[in-house]
Amino acid sequence: MSLLVSAGEASGDAMAAPVVRQLGAGLAFGLGGSELRAAGMDTSLDLEPLAAMGVGSVALRAPAIARALAHLLAEAKRRRPRASLLVGFSEFNAWLGPRLRELGVRVLWYAPPQIWAWRKERGPRLCRAVDRMAVLLPFEAPLWQGFGADAHFVGHPVLDRALPTRQAARDRFGLTPWAEYVALLPGSRVQEVEHHLGPMLEALALLRAERGALDARVVVAPSLPASVREKMTRTARDSGVGVISSHAQAVLPAFDVAMAKSGTVTLECVSAGVPPVIGYRTGRLSAWLAERMLNVKFVGLPNLILGEGVFPELLQERFTADALAEETARLLDERRRYVEACADVRRALAGGERRASDRVVELLEPWLA
């Protein structure tokens, strides 16, 4: 009895880890990172070489991706798992899922592609790639069910983690109790950091010139390569800004507001009651493709869940130091209103009193019994 796991990104690694931990050490094998290893999984493939963003990056990593797919299929034939847990990592897992099913392996896709945002026409094909889906957002289940999928809303895992109090978090990281603090969250991928960190630091310099008791920290994702983490630390310290190497949720309660690249980290912000300025900048080719394929009015997940642009979004050319400073100052000045909006998002994301990982375990257990 075994479970094949395919989690090729840091976010998927964190989501899958509590599921594997509940199922028991020694059961799971496959593609993952440090969180899954700590949970007891045999990570015969490490996710770091596969992390990619943008058309060019994916193309450059195509040989490594092909080798990883071949390795997982060979391991599936050798170990004959009863079930598999695919987590995010859309294109990779869309190819892997149907081939696992051909081997008689049941497939659960946790956080399947966001077809409501772009390329909705993929829906019927992706449904045939899996046996069951565990979706994170409340409006996703009826959408997938409309295509014939056995889809279940399990709630969002960002709500599962126990968070420290504001005072405990500030004490742990040595932050002044009375100051205003801004979290700088440039991303967990190399290219994201390259696009976002500079404007964030410039915006902070503008804010400091206007507000007295204002400080900040750059939150460095542990999943980044060591060389990138070291470069981020040097760059931040050259700007007079400290760094904290940590998963965002562990440190966010210490802050008042955040500058955050769009994605799951914006939900981590609202789960901690920290209003985010949501931003994103990418290469011209990726931006050109996105403009023509996106089907949504908002990019920020909190705004999508609320159905309105409550939290500011600064995308591409609008992602500038001046705009970041202006919007961050507004969040600080009107923080109470935005904290209430964070609570509205949390209520919409909750799938009940039980954790998302508990529900995913329930969906897998009948196949593993």
Account of the 3D structure:
The chain is 49% helix and 17% strand. It has 369 residues and is of the alpha/beta class. It folds into two domains: 3-155 and 351-368, 3-Layer(aba) Sandwich (Rossmann fold), CATH 3.40.50; 166-349, Rossmann fold (3-Layer(aba) Sandwich). The strands form two sheets. It has a seven-stranded parallel sheet, with helices on both faces. Strands 10-9-8-11-12-13 form a six-stranded parallel sheet, with helices on both faces. The termini are close together. The relative contact order is 0.13.
The gist of it:
This protein has 369 residues and is an alpha/beta fold. Helix content is 49%, strand content 17%. β4 (83-87), α5 (90-102) and β5 (106-110) form a beta-alpha-beta unit.
